Amino acid sequence: MRKPAVLVLLATAMVHAQWKTPWAYNGPTGPEHWGDLDPEYAACKGRAQSPVDIRATVKENLPLLAFQYKSAPLKYLINNGKTIRVNYHDASGGDLFALGVRYHLTQFHFHRPAEDLVNGKQYEMVAHLMHESDDKKAAGVAVLIRAGHANETVRKLWDHMSPAEGPEREIPGVEVTAAGLLPPEFAYYTYRGSLSAPPCTEDVVWFVLKTPIELSRQQIAAFAKLYPDDIRPVQPLNGRIIRESK
Ligand SMILES: [Zn+2]
Questions:
Q1: 15: helix, coil or strand?
Q2: Distance from the alpha carbon of residue 40 to the mean position of ligand 1, in angstroms
Q3: How is the chain split into domains, by residue range?
Q4: Under a CB-based contact definition with an 8 Å cutoff, are residues 158 and 228 in contact?
Q5: CATH code for the domain defined by 5-245
Q6: Over the stretch 169-193, which tens digit does the pLDDT of each residue have?
Q7: What's the gap in Å between 1 CA and the centre of ligand 1?
């Protein structure tokens, strides 16, 4: 049966509502072109971009990170055409305290493989936990992922993720906490970078946790079936210092 034209139009509008100007991880709208696709993406040509290859670091006595994530109903699960993401529009996901600043968890999502490299090593996946302070400072926590045991939080997400791009969905009766994506230790690398996808906004302070978490091979394969390669290549440091907690 043919879909009524108005429904097709609505669906198209919803799909494209994610980003004003479409972009991709490869091809003519791929990463090397992002900065020219839309004036609002001009930061993609900036000098403090993410991801990076973490090689030379400066070891310092940096303060510990403190996570106060909370379990909350899974309200805003979305396949946005680039990744699987959980949004928090109401700060219900809890807080991160980092370098003297309190941030609220705004969303988390996944990439395969990982984006930031560590001494050239690329992990199987990465979870990006994104945060914002009351005065709109942005902080990202990157949790590297290797193959191993299944992750219970990811199981809940994958059980309910849409196989195709679509709007945010509420999943009744399911609660998740981003704490389920944290490793047991929070030693970290930190540097100033950007969102790693358009609009590539800079002034994001990144914390790349040194200790990875595990997903099962099946969990990694389930994500790879949807998004086998949703990463941006590493960007030049341009003199930026990467600090490492002791
Ligand atoms: Zn990301």
A1: helix
A2: 18
A3: 5-245
A4: no
A5: 3.10.200.10
A6: 999 999 999 999 999 999 999 999 9
A7: 38
Residue 133 scores a pLDDT above 90: yes
Cα–ligand 1 centroid distance for 6 (angstroms): 33
Cα of 111 from ligand 1 centre, angstroms:
6
Name the nearest CA neighbour of 165 among 2, 5, 19, 3: 19
Q: How far apart are CA 218 and CA 238, in angstroms?
A: 38
Q: How far apart are CA 118 and CA 46, in angstroms?
A: 22
Is residue 74 within 8 A of residue 156, CB to CB? The reply is: yes
Check residue 106 and give its pLDDT: 97
With a CB cutoff of 8 Å and minimum separation 6, the contacts of 42 are: 35
- 114 Cα: distance to centroid of ligand 1 (angstroms): 9
Residue 129 CA to ligand 1 center (angstroms) comes to: 8
Q: Mind listing the pLDDT tens digit for each residue in 19-39?
A: 889 999 999 999 999 999 999
d(CA 165, CA 186): 33
CA 145–ligand 1 middle distance (angstroms): 13
Tell the burial category of 142 from Cβ atoms under 10 Å away from its Cβ (0-12, 13-18, 19+). buried
Residue 6 to residue 66: CA distance in whole angstroms: 49
Share of the chain above pLDDT 90, in %: 91
